[in-house]
Design the sequence.
């Protein structure tokens, strides 16, 4: 019986060794579990204390909370991100950019992801202003991207600051994909260059401002007004006239006006065997405007004074600006429109220029 009993129970030394090992492992696991529970409990308590200081609606990422003492960070409140009017504003701006940069084969789908590196902003500013910026075409490094942004934003600020614009954007804000700063910048450019778009009115968003004071994060909400009304174009003070009202409220009558203007210009351009069917596109390079002024004032315009077959944006702007000079030489007031607006196919600007000619030369033969 003794031998049988010994066989069934196994070697006593092996059993004690296994029990000792399992006991140690079990004890270690239990201690680790308890330590984790304590750590989780402490973290939960810390979060509970700081919860009133953090925006409950904001999805704050860890890196966004690593602030130095007295540092400050802003971010868009998620509720504003879902605001239908804010979404509509973004769509209008995206469509406008894609239309402007169609020849560059650039397609923007997301303002934050597609504009932060400065590439699209560079192309957009060059197209709108007719200026070529001295920057590298493609930059992959963060330093290179920020250098490009610096050059682009300096050019933008030099243009907008004298007009009274408050600069609500910066290199770091754009590069860290701050959507509010990006939209502010695009709205300013669209309004300054009289983009042929209609921005949604009274678009405001809530921005969460996070500050660190004595090691504690403090938050507040600030309202940012991105657009007011289309009638008020910030500090450019673009005067609304009959064409604004016509386009906004009586588009059906617009065709009547366009037909009258086409009849007027063709009455004179037909003398050179030229004919206009599309006002906004056929006057965009300035050639017909220059020739029309020569016909209306009854003189020949030397061909060396303008580009008969302009190819670049700068050549087209030169032609339209030269036509404006001829208008002023003829006793007309300086056109309210800018040459760049006509070249950019801005219908209202083209209509204003042609209507001014019509009212002054409608009896000319």
Sequence:
């Amino acid at each position: 019986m003794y031998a049988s009993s010994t066989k069934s129970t196994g070697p006593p030394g092996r059993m004690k060794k296994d029990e000792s090992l399992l006991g140690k492992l079990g004890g270690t696991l239990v201690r680790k579990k308890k330590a984790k529970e304590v750590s989780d409990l402490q973290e939960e308590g810390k979060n509970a204390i700081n919860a009133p200081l953090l925006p409950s609606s904001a999805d704050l990422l860890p890196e966004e909370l690593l602030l130095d003492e007295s540092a400050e960070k802003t971010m868009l409140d998620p509720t504003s991100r879902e605001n239908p009017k804010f979404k509509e504003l973004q769509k209008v701006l995206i469509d406008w950019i894609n239309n402007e940069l169609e020849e560059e084969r650039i397609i923007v789908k997301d303002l934050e992801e597609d504009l932060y590196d400065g590439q699209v902003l560079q192309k957009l500013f060059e197209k709108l202003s007719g200026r070529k910026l001295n920057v590298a075409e493609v930059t992959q490094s963060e330093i290179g991207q920020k250098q490009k942004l610096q050059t682009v934003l300096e050019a933008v600020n030099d243009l907008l600051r004298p007009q009274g614009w408050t600069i609500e954007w910066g290199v770091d804000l754009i590069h860290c994909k701050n959507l509010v700063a990006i939209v502010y910048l695009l709205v300013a450019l669209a309004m300054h260059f009289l983009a042929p778009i209609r921005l949604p009115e009274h678009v405001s968003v809530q921005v969460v401002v996070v500050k660190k004071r004595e090691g504690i994060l403090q938050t507040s909400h600030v309202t940012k007004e991105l657009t007011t009304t289309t009638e008020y174009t910030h500090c450019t003070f673009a005067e609304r006239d009959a064409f604004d009202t016509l386009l906004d409220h009586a588009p059906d009558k617009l065709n009547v006006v366009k037909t009258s203007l086409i009849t007027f210009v063709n009455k004179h351009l037909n003398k050179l065997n030229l004919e206009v069917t599309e006002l906004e596109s056929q006057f965009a390079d300035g050639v017909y405007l220059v020739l029309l002024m020569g016909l209306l004032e009854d003189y020949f315009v030397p061909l060396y004074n303008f580009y008969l077959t302009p190819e670049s944006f700068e050549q087209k702007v030169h032609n339209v600006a030269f036509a404006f000079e001829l208008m002023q030489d003829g006793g007309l007031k300086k056109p309210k429109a800018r040459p760049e607006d006509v070249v950019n196919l801005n219908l209202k600007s083209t209509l204003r220029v042609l209507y001014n000619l019509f009212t002054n030369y409608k009896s000319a033969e």
Remarks:
- The mean pLDDT is 78.
- The two ends are 137 Å apart (CA to CA).
